[in-house]
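Lab notebook: predicted structure, single chain.

Context: the supervisor wants predicted structures on file for every construct in the current expression panel, including those that have not yet been purified. This is the next one on the list. No modifications to the sequence; it matches the entry in the shared construct table.
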Amino acid sequence: MSATPPDADGTGERLSGKGEVGMRLNQVLPPDMATGRGKHGEKSDLVVHDDELGALGHMAFELRARLSTIGNHASQTTASAAGEMSSDGLDAGSALRELHDAWGTKLATVKEACAHISNHLDYSRAQHRSDDRKIATNMRNAKGEAMTVSRIYNYIK
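Prediction complete. Output recorded below exactly as produced.
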Protein backbone atom coordinates (compact mmCIF):
# COMPACT_ATOMS: atom_id res chain seq x y z
CA MET A 1 0.00 0.00 0.00
CA SER A 2 1.26 3.47 -0.90
CA ALA A 3 2.01 6.14 1.68
CA THR A 4 0.59 8.71 -0.72
CA PRO A 5 -2.97 9.74 0.23
CA PRO A 6 -5.51 9.20 -2.53
CA ASP A 7 -6.80 12.15 -4.49
CA ALA A 8 -10.37 12.60 -5.77
CA ASP A 9 -10.26 9.54 -8.00
CA GLY A 10 -8.65 7.40 -5.27
CA THR A 11 -5.40 6.75 -7.11
CA GLY A 12 -3.02 9.11 -5.33
CA GLU A 13 -1.44 9.65 -8.73
CA ARG A 14 -1.60 13.44 -8.72
CA LEU A 15 -0.01 13.78 -5.30
CA SER A 16 2.81 11.35 -6.04
CA GLY A 17 3.53 13.19 -9.29
CA LYS A 18 3.59 16.47 -7.40
CA GLY A 19 6.20 15.06 -5.03
CA GLU A 20 8.38 13.93 -7.92
CA VAL A 21 8.29 17.42 -9.43
CA GLY A 22 9.23 18.92 -6.07
CA MET A 23 12.19 16.57 -5.86
CA ARG A 24 13.41 17.65 -9.31
CA LEU A 25 13.00 21.33 -8.43
CA ASN A 26 15.15 20.94 -5.33
CA GLN A 27 18.06 19.31 -7.17
CA VAL A 28 21.38 21.04 -7.80
CA LEU A 29 21.79 21.84 -11.48
CA PRO A 30 24.81 20.58 -13.40
CA PRO A 31 27.50 23.29 -13.71
CA ASP A 32 26.79 24.00 -17.38
CA MET A 33 23.09 24.65 -16.64
CA ALA A 34 23.53 26.53 -13.37
CA THR A 35 25.92 29.13 -14.79
CA GLY A 36 24.11 29.76 -18.06
CA ARG A 37 27.16 28.44 -19.90
CA GLY A 38 27.19 25.76 -22.51
CA LYS A 39 29.54 22.82 -22.77
CA HIS A 40 33.24 23.51 -22.39
CA GLY A 41 32.53 26.85 -20.64
CA GLU A 42 31.03 28.55 -23.71
CA LYS A 43 28.43 31.18 -22.90
CA SER A 44 24.94 30.08 -23.94
CA ASP A 45 22.68 32.57 -25.62
CA LEU A 46 19.22 32.43 -27.12
CA VAL A 47 19.26 32.98 -30.85
CA VAL A 48 16.00 33.21 -32.75
CA HIS A 49 15.80 34.32 -36.34
CA ASP A 50 13.05 36.64 -37.52
CA ASP A 51 11.82 34.18 -40.14
CA GLU A 52 11.46 31.50 -37.45
CA LEU A 53 9.34 33.80 -35.28
CA GLY A 54 7.17 34.61 -38.27
CA ALA A 55 6.70 30.95 -39.19
CA LEU A 56 5.80 29.96 -35.62
CA GLY A 57 3.38 32.87 -35.27
CA HIS A 58 1.74 31.97 -38.56
CA MET A 59 1.39 28.32 -37.51
CA ALA A 60 -0.32 29.41 -34.28
CA PHE A 61 -2.62 31.73 -36.27
CA GLU A 62 -3.54 28.94 -38.71
CA LEU A 63 -4.12 26.44 -35.89
CA ARG A 64 -6.50 28.87 -34.20
CA ALA A 65 -8.39 29.37 -37.46
CA ARG A 66 -8.64 25.60 -38.04
CA LEU A 67 -9.81 24.99 -34.47
CA SER A 68 -12.46 27.68 -34.91
CA THR A 69 -13.72 25.89 -38.02
CA ILE A 70 -13.49 22.21 -37.12
CA GLY A 71 -13.26 22.23 -33.32
CA ASN A 72 -17.00 22.58 -32.86
CA HIS A 73 -18.28 20.70 -35.89
CA ALA A 74 -20.33 18.33 -33.70
CA SER A 75 -21.45 20.92 -31.15
CA GLN A 76 -25.05 21.27 -32.33
CA THR A 77 -25.54 17.53 -32.81
CA THR A 78 -24.05 16.78 -29.38
CA ALA A 79 -26.21 19.41 -27.66
CA SER A 80 -29.30 18.09 -29.45
CA ALA A 81 -28.52 14.48 -28.47
CA ALA A 82 -27.91 15.54 -24.86
CA GLY A 83 -31.27 17.32 -24.81
CA GLU A 84 -33.14 14.35 -26.27
CA MET A 85 -31.55 11.88 -23.86
CA SER A 86 -32.34 14.14 -20.91
CA SER A 87 -35.96 14.53 -22.01
CA ASP A 88 -36.20 10.73 -22.28
CA GLY A 89 -35.07 10.50 -18.65
CA LEU A 90 -31.60 9.15 -19.34
CA ASP A 91 -28.78 10.28 -17.04
CA ALA A 92 -26.43 10.03 -20.01
CA GLY A 93 -28.06 13.21 -21.34
CA SER A 94 -26.76 15.37 -18.51
CA ALA A 95 -23.37 13.65 -18.71
CA LEU A 96 -23.20 14.36 -22.44
CA ARG A 97 -24.19 17.99 -21.82
CA GLU A 98 -21.40 18.27 -19.23
CA LEU A 99 -18.92 16.77 -21.70
CA HIS A 100 -20.14 19.17 -24.40
CA ASP A 101 -19.62 22.18 -22.12
CA ALA A 102 -16.19 20.98 -20.96
CA TRP A 103 -15.10 20.51 -24.58
CA GLY A 104 -16.22 24.05 -25.41
CA THR A 105 -14.23 25.44 -22.48
CA LYS A 106 -11.08 23.50 -23.37
CA LEU A 107 -11.38 24.44 -27.04
CA ALA A 108 -11.73 28.12 -26.16
CA THR A 109 -8.64 27.89 -23.93
CA VAL A 110 -6.52 26.33 -26.70
CA LYS A 111 -7.75 28.90 -29.24
CA GLU A 112 -6.92 31.72 -26.83
CA ALA A 113 -3.44 30.28 -26.27
CA CYS A 114 -2.86 30.10 -30.04
CA ALA A 115 -3.96 33.73 -30.43
CA HIS A 116 -1.69 34.78 -27.57
CA ILE A 117 1.31 32.99 -29.12
CA SER A 118 0.64 34.48 -32.54
CA ASN A 119 0.19 38.01 -31.18
CA HIS A 120 3.24 37.76 -28.92
CA LEU A 121 5.49 36.58 -31.75
CA ASP A 122 4.20 39.32 -34.06
CA TYR A 123 4.93 41.88 -31.34
CA SER A 124 8.39 40.38 -30.71
CA ARG A 125 9.29 40.57 -34.40
CA ALA A 126 8.17 44.19 -34.64
CA GLN A 127 9.92 45.17 -31.42
CA HIS A 128 13.20 43.51 -32.42
CA ARG A 129 13.07 45.24 -35.81
CA SER A 130 12.44 48.58 -34.09
CA ASP A 131 15.26 47.99 -31.59
CA ASP A 132 17.67 47.09 -34.39
CA ARG A 133 16.76 50.28 -36.30
CA LYS A 134 17.17 52.38 -33.17
CA ILE A 135 20.58 50.88 -32.42
CA ALA A 136 21.73 51.38 -36.00
CA THR A 137 20.60 55.02 -36.16
CA ASN A 138 21.30 56.22 -32.61
CA MET A 139 24.61 54.62 -31.72
CA ARG A 140 27.40 57.20 -31.47
CA ASN A 141 31.08 57.07 -30.66
CA ALA A 142 32.85 59.11 -27.96
CA LYS A 143 33.06 62.15 -30.30
CA GLY A 144 29.29 62.04 -30.87
CA GLU A 145 29.58 60.89 -34.47
CA ALA A 146 27.04 58.42 -35.80
CA MET A 147 28.34 54.88 -35.91
CA THR A 148 27.72 52.91 -39.09
CA VAL A 149 26.99 49.21 -38.92
CA SER A 150 30.42 48.42 -40.37
CA ARG A 151 32.16 50.56 -37.71
CA ILE A 152 30.14 48.89 -34.96
CA TYR A 153 31.13 45.50 -36.39
CA ASN A 154 34.81 46.54 -36.34
CA TYR A 155 34.53 47.31 -32.62
CA ILE A 156 32.94 43.94 -31.90
CA LYS A 157 35.50 41.85 -33.86
